[in-house]
Amino acid sequence: MKPRVSLQDSALRNGNFSLRIDPVRSEDVGLYEAWVKYNTEVHSCHVELGVITVTLSQPNPVVENEMVSMSCNSSHRASLVETCWFHNGHLGPTSRTFCSFPGALSIFRPAMSDAGSWKCQLRYSDNEIISATYNLQILGFDGPTNPVVYAAAGSAAH
């Protein structure tokens, strides 16, 4: 897993044996075990790492007015009960046309206003709630609604 893993050497003296993985990948899911020997004592701990992923049906940035689907999946073993999507901190869907499928969100005609932070929150049958955030970028025109622009002859038009 090198160079994605590291130990905080300065924290070891204080008894902190945390493992840092950056970036986390789907294949990192599983049970991790740490063994620490201090003098004659051996201590161990087990940590299970779960992973949640948000993927797009097309590359980011998304072209304005071209349908996009965002899917949200987790390695959690319980049954998925509910999927909620939040845009910039607000619960969706909004008055625009959004369809929510288990773990997925489709935006049929994405606009510049759909850009920003999207949070996927998954709730499972064991009441576990898992969430991830994705920054959606929209490639489009964020200008005046009237496409006619007048400029004086001899001047610059923007």
Automatic annotation (TrEMBL):
<dbReference type="InterPro" id="IPR036179">
    <property type="entry name" value="Ig-like_dom_sf"/>
</dbReference>
<comment type="function">
    <text>Lymphocyte activation gene 3 protein: Inhibitory receptor on antigen activated T-cells. Delivers inhibitory signals upon binding to ligands, such as FGL1. FGL1 constitutes a major ligand of LAG3 and is responsible for LAG3 T-cell inhibitory function. Following TCR engagement, LAG3 associates with CD3-TCR in the immunological synapse and directly inhibits T-cell activation. May inhibit antigen-specific T-cell activation in synergy with PDCD1/PD-1, possibly by acting as a coreceptor for PDCD1/PD-1.</text>
</comment>
<dbReference type="GO" id="GO:0070374">
    <property type="term" value="P:positive regulation of ERK1 and ERK2 cascade"/>
</dbReference>
<keyword id="KW-0677">Repeat</keyword>
<keyword id="KW-0472">Membrane</keyword>
<keyword id="KW-1015">Disulfide bond</keyword>
<keyword id="KW-0964">Secreted</keyword>
<dbReference type="GO" id="GO:0035723">
    <property type="term" value="P:interleukin-15-mediated signaling pathway"/>
</dbReference>
<protein>
    <recommendedName>
        <fullName>Lymphocyte activation gene 3 protein</fullName>
    </recommendedName>
</protein>
<dbReference type="InterPro" id="IPR013783">
    <property type="entry name" value="Ig-like_fold"/>
</dbReference>
<dbReference type="GO" id="GO:0005576">
    <property type="term" value="C:extracellular region"/>
</dbReference>
<dbReference type="InterPro" id="IPR007110">
    <property type="entry name" value="Ig-like_dom"/>
</dbReference>
<dbReference type="GO" id="GO:0042110">
    <property type="term" value="P:T cell activation"/>
</dbReference>
<keyword id="KW-0732">Signal</keyword>
<dbReference type="GO" id="GO:0002250">
    <property type="term" value="P:adaptive immune response"/>
</dbReference>
<dbReference type="GO" id="GO:0045121">
    <property type="term" value="C:membrane raft"/>
</dbReference>
<comment type="function">
    <text>May function as a ligand for MHC class II (MHC-II) on antigen-presenting cells (APC), promoting APC activation/maturation and driving Th1 immune response.</text>
</comment>
<comment type="subunit">
    <text>Interacts with MHC class II (MHC-II); selectively recognizes stable complexes of peptide and MHC-II. Interacts with FGL1 (via the Fibrinogen C-terminal domain).</text>
</comment>
<dbReference type="GO" id="GO:0042289">
    <property type="term" value="F:MHC class II protein binding"/>
</dbReference>
<keyword id="KW-0812">Transmembrane</keyword>
<comment type="similarity">
    <text>Belongs to the LAG3 family.</text>
</comment>
<keyword id="KW-0391">Immunity</keyword>
<keyword id="KW-1064">Adaptive immunity</keyword>
<feature type="domain" description="Ig-like">
    <location>
        <begin position="50"/>
        <end position="131"/>
    </location>
</feature>
<keyword id="KW-0325">Glycoprotein</keyword>
<keyword id="KW-1003">Cell membrane</keyword>
<dbReference type="GO" id="GO:1990782">
    <property type="term" value="F:protein tyrosine kinase binding"/>
</dbReference>
<keyword id="KW-0393">Immunoglobulin domain</keyword>
<dbReference type="GO" id="GO:0009897">
    <property type="term" value="C:external side of plasma membrane"/>
</dbReference>
<keyword id="KW-1133">Transmembrane helix</keyword>
